[in-house]
Fold Homoserine O-succinyltransferase.
Amino acid sequence: MEKAGTRKFAVLLCADESEHVKQAYGGYLKVFMGLLGEEDETWRVYRAMHGELPCMADVHTYDGFVITGSCSDAHGDDRWINDLVSFLRALDSMKKKVLGVCFGHQILSRALGGKTGRAMKGWDIGVTCIRLSPSAIKLLSSLHIPSHLPIIECHRDEVWQPPPHAEVMACSEKTGVEMFRYGDHMMGIQGHPEYNKDILRHLLDRLLQRNLIQACQAETAKASLEAQEPDREAWKRLCRGFLTGKLSW
């Protein structure tokens, strides 16, 4: 039974979990809870890729939603993707907090009127340092977020054009829209704040096995993992601050 007054969040899972993630971490719900969750909160997973989304009658009971990464294209036309787009538009109309990660970042942009597609500069895999905009630095000052933020990335698609009225919060050498916010209730992050190096290493092996990346790309990505650390604590403060309404936007 849920305790009165406790926060409640939903993770919209947009990919099938690997055996490694299930065995080592208990699934992506627990991976996200490890970054974002706190005691006395309720977290539930919905397998959006298999057509499972919260009932609209229950949406008001949730304080926020997190959209995960995916092997699918956010610009695709699969039924579950179109259903997710419609659901996100409904959440926008209700001003519900939504955090999109990687594919989630892209599909959120699409739902709000932005454009997505294949990344102009190809795959970005490994630890990437993103640069916050001056306005984002000011907005996040209360959380003491550094202006340059290392994060684990693994994507070949990107946001080409952010939604109308959205603010681009960060960019990197390869990607023009690393973060965006839409009002004070929706935010997208192209990277994976929830990933650790072990998760990415196993993902690289799977991408190689499926011939989705070349060996040289995997080696470059692995080298970046040795060269720098993702700033997990800063990303935790940023994402938690957004989901719990601690940012004065």
The mean pLDDT is 94. The CA atoms of residues 150 and 231 lie 6 Å apart. Helices lie at 19-25, 28-36, 79-93, 103-111, 134-139, 197-209, 215-227, 232-243. Residues 79-93 form the longest helix (15 residues).
